Amino acid sequence: MTLFALDVPTDRFNHATIREVGLRDGLQSLSQVLPTPHKIEWLQAAYDAGQREIEVGSFVPARLLPQLADTAEVLAFAKSLPGLTASVLVPNLKGAERAIECKADVVLLPLSVSHAHSLANLRKTPDEVVKEIERIVAARDAAGSNTLIEVGLSTAFGCPLQGQVKAEEVIRLMQAVLDVGVDRVGIADTVGYADPAMVSRLFQQALPIAGGKLNCGHFHDTRGLGLANVYAAMLCGVTRFDASLAGIGGCPHAPGASGNVATEDLAFMLQSMGVSTGQNLLQLLELRKKLAQWLGDEAVHGTLWKAGLPKTMTELSQ
């Protein structure tokens, strides 16, 4: 049996959505704190480059993540940009209530499939996190809010703290959060353990259960397979992916988990294959250059910025 087609069937994949997560997932793992005016400038430039889904921060205690202490201010600016879907990550009910109060469009809730990672990250077992998610759904509904609730099933392909993570556990927890009423779910390779065959197998198991509510793949390029894993998920029917400008980011509680898929590399790959993202590659590269200057000695990643666009590419934002 053939695992992968050679070409994306463009009659099914005319467009893919890239959600920029650099302002949260990227910055949270860096040692320095990016000033709020730089974040605002980043947001505006990303919007001007065509990005319409951006994860702008996280409502967590400032003492834990000072890099994201200004999330309310950044979110307020994001809400002023017409047509922009602004997401924030929250770890618990208190954070979700703050996000709903600030009118975030999407609340992102991490659910570690790995028991060990869940305890390290949230100090709760996965099933305790599901109970917290149920309370968050109830609070959202009671508030009459339009905020969407999205659960990211992290460490879905393995964990450096626990080792193997069973696909059956991913499916069990996915079903559990769907049962408590979340609006959508995503699958995340938090530490870059996945390969395309693993991605294909897991998404093919998950999609019949979640249907259209499974609409996001979150991949790390820790071992160089990030883009290949995106392609494997696309062939299963997923057309929405997280990525981080300059490939920055990673989970601070998962050793070795550095390097999200680089936004500019992902946009280039998709647009080169004829899949529209709505993002202007030249503007993304200019923004990446500015971000690298802001970050100074911090590690940045990706490959497109080194070689530039090929002479054969004429469609920069389609």
Description:
Helix 8 links the parallel strand 6 and strand 7. The protein has one domain (17-307): TIM Barrel (Alpha-Beta Barrel), CATH 3.20.20. Helix content is 40%, strand content 14%. The longest helix is centred in the middle third of the chain and has 17 residues, at 126-142. With 318 residues, it is an alpha/beta fold. The protein starts with 16 loop residues before the first strand and ends in an 11-residue tail after the last helix. It is globular. Strands 1-8-7-6-5-4-3-2 form an eight-stranded parallel β-sheet. The model is unreliable at 1-6 (pLDDT under 50). The chain is built from twelve helices and eight strands.
Protein traits:
14% strand, eight-stranded parallel β-sheet, 318 residues, TIM Barrel, 12 helices
Largest sheet: 8 strands, parallel
Question: Looking at this structure, what is the CATH superfamily?
Answer: Aldolase class I
Percent range for β-strand residues: 5-15%
Question: End-to-end distance, in Å?
Answer: 34 Å
Number of domains: 1
Task: Compute the number of helices.
Answer: 12
Number of strands: 8
SSE order in H/E notation? EHHEHEHEHHEHEHEHEHHH
Biggest β-sheet: strands ordered side by side in the sheet: 1-8-7-6-5-4-3-2
Helix content: 40-55%
Q: Per CATH, what is the topology?
A: TIM Barrel
